[in-house]
Design brief:
The complex is a heterodimer of chains A (248) and B (280). By secondary structure, chain A is of the alpha+beta class. In chain A, 33% of the residues lie in helices and 18% in strands. Chain A has helices spanning 33-43, 45-50, 60-70, 72-75, 91-97, 114-124, 160-169, 186-207, and strands at 77-80, 83-86, 136-142, 173-177, 183-185, 213-220, 223-226, 231-235, 239-243. In chain A, a hairpin with a 4-residue loop joins strand 7 and strand 8. In chain A, helix 7 runs antiparallel to helix 8 (186-207). The mean pLDDT of chain A is 80. By secondary structure, chain B is of the alpha+beta class. In chain B, the strands form 2 sheets. Chain B has a 7-stranded antiparallel β-sheet with strand order 5-9-10-6-11-12-13, with helices on both faces. Chain B has a 6-stranded mixed β-sheet with strand order 1-4-3-2-7-8, covered by helices on one side. The mean pLDDT of chain B is 91. The chains are: A alpha+beta (248), B alpha+beta (280).
Chain lengths: 248, 280
């Protein structure tokens, strides 16, 4: 019996035209496959999403690009200047998409003033309100007792470092940009993050009285996920530390 | 009726103006200081001192008087005077990125303001011809005079007692003309889409990659509306962002030309986002 052949996916390589010259004439030759797939998916994202272009008709590479772009993390990740920001509320995407001029935009550098963007992200969208195990840690214990993390209503432990260890085991790469700008990867990245949290926690413990409840929330406002390298980056220079016991 | 006083005219000299005002104040005199775009006058009981920025030839004032005469007779004047018109005469593409362009395309409307007055039947053919025979440097002040504005500060016994803002009766006509040209530029910008860079008064700046079809559509609209236009040679266009300001430098017809404008899109975008957030 003949061995069943695995279906071969034809790359769309030879269907990606290079585009047009500045005089409007078609360029000869073809775009490289990776660039072509990205261009094709970007230009037809809405059609693929609505099903007008069936997902099954995409090439392997295009499917991978589409999955990346359709990923909620990717979809709600914004750039401003050289930093990335994640909107856990997922509301900004809907708001921008309601405006034809801002539809699909993820790099908002030239669209909003720096102070307006900061206001929007830190105050209006209030990511700390939606802080979860993927972007924050929440320490909740009495001074003198063993340190403990808070568990939310669904039972999720709000401890990003534990979460990152799990994420790392699942194959995702971790990068951490330290406060001095140094970049760490893998286990070193997680250790750097743990050290950072320990320092913040130590400060909170020192200021608290014996037996006082310590509620320290550390929210990583700037995260960057690169679907192509499957790497998530946390920037320790853009972190919101909330000592909730100090908050009126 | 004001008593006729001795008059003297000087070129603008802020230091001299200030020292005369200080002297009048110390002597506790009664006088009026009139500031306008074109001159500053110190009107005393004995003499009127006039400080001018540029001396316009008599034909500028003749042209201005001809425009005013036509405006008085034009059936459209009353309607326009009652309207509200914007004086915003520049804009840029939403999200314009800082960049350097070796060459860009600039479409300028020729003699935009005189044509606008004429097309809208606000001036007669005779006044239009008179304006068109003047050099550009004189034509603009002649039309701009219809929006004259001055602040009058009255000093009694050396103390400033009262101030008054006086505007030309036909100021709104000038604003109407500005809006007409701006609307035309905005229309062209919309057609140009991603090829649009920015517009400034009566000139629109486009990427050289703009399609021939879009360009034909834009020039078609200019012609349809009754305006003439010309292509200007623009090279080495450098666009830089400084906060909410856009600093643009270019070589236009061999001369360096800087532009500085607020990016109005930033505030517009933020307002839209906030409105949607509130409605959500």
């Amino acid at each position: 019996m003949a061995k069943k052949k695995t279906p071969q996916y034809q790359d769309r390589k030879y269907n990606y035209p290079k585009g047009f010259t500045k005089y409007g004439k078609s360029k000869t030759g073809f775009m490289p496959a990776a660039q072509g797939a990205r261009t094709f998916v970007t230009n037809n994202f809405d059609k693929i999403k609505s099903g007008a272009i069936p997902f099954d008709s995409l090439t392997q590479r295009e499917k991978r690009v589409y999955r990346g772009k359709n990923n909620p993390t990717f979809e709600n990740l914004y750039r401003y200047g050289d930093k990335s920001y994640y909107d856990p509320t997922r509301s900004l995407r809907k708001i921008l998409d309601n405006n034809p001029e801002l539809k699909g935009k993820r790099d908002l550098t030239n669209f909003l003033k720096p102070e307006d963007f900061k206001n929007l992200f830190d105050q209006r969208l209030n990511p700390t309100k939606y802080a979860d195990g993927t972007n924050s840690s929440f320490y909740d214990f009495k001074k003198g007792d063993k340190k403990q993390f808070y568990r939310d209503e669904s039972g999720t432990l709000l401890d990003i470092v534990t979460k990152l260890n799990k994420i790392k085991r699942s194959g995702r790469n971790i990068r951490v940009i330290d406060t001095d700008g140094k970049i760490y990867t893998g286990t070193q990245a997680i250790d750097t993050m743990r050290q950072f949290e320990s320092d913040q926690l130590q400060k909170a413990i020192e200021t608290a009285k014996d037996g006082q409840q310590i509620q320290l929330q550390i929210v990583y406002l700037s995260t960057d996920y690169n679907p192509f390298t499957n790497t998530v980056t946390y920037n320790l220079n853009n972190v919101q530390v909330n000592n909730l016991k100090d908050t009126p | 009726m004001r008593k006729k006083t001795n008059a003297a005219t000087y070129y603008k000299n802020p230091a001299l103006q200030e020292s005369i005002i200080r002297y009048y104040k110390e002597k506790q005199l009664n006088f009026v200081v009139k500031h306008s775009n074109y001159n500053t006058q110190i009107i005393g009981t004995e003499a009127t001192l006039k400080f001018i920025q540029t001396e316009h030839p008599i034909r500028v004032f003749v042209a201005y008087n001809k425009i005013v005469k036509d405006l008085k007779e034009s059936p459209k004047t009353v309607e326009i005077l009652q309207g509200e018109w914007s004086t915003d005469n520049f804009d840029s593409r939403n999200g314009l990125k800082p960049a350097f362009y070796k060459k860009i395309l600039n479409l300028d409307i020729s003699s935009a303001y005189p044509y606008c007055l004429w097309i809208n039947k606000l001036i007669t053919q005779d006044t239009f011809n008179y304006l068109m025979n003047m050099p550009k440097t004189e034509r603009l002040p002649a039309i701009g005079m219809i929006a004259k504005k001055s602040v009058w500060i009255t000093y009694t016994n050396g103390k400033a007692e009262n101030w008054e803002l006086k505007e030309g009766f036909y100021t709104n006509i000038f604003f109407y003309v500005i809006q007409q040209i701006t609307d035309l530029m905005a229309w062209a910008a919309e057609i140009a889409g991603d090829s649009f860079l920015f517009y400034w008064v009566d000139g629109i700046f486009l990427k050289p990659t703009i399609s021939k079809k879009k360009l034909a559509e834009i020039t078609g609209i200019f012609a349809e509306q009754g305006y003439y236009f010309k292509y200007e040679k623009v090279e080495n266009c450098n666009i830089v962002r400084d906060g909410d300001k856009l600093l643009i430098n270019m070589i236009k017809n061999g001369e360096e030309k800087p532009y500085q404008m607020y990016d109005k899109n930033l505030a517009r975008n933020f307002t839209k986002v906030l409105q949607q957030l509130e409605n959500a």
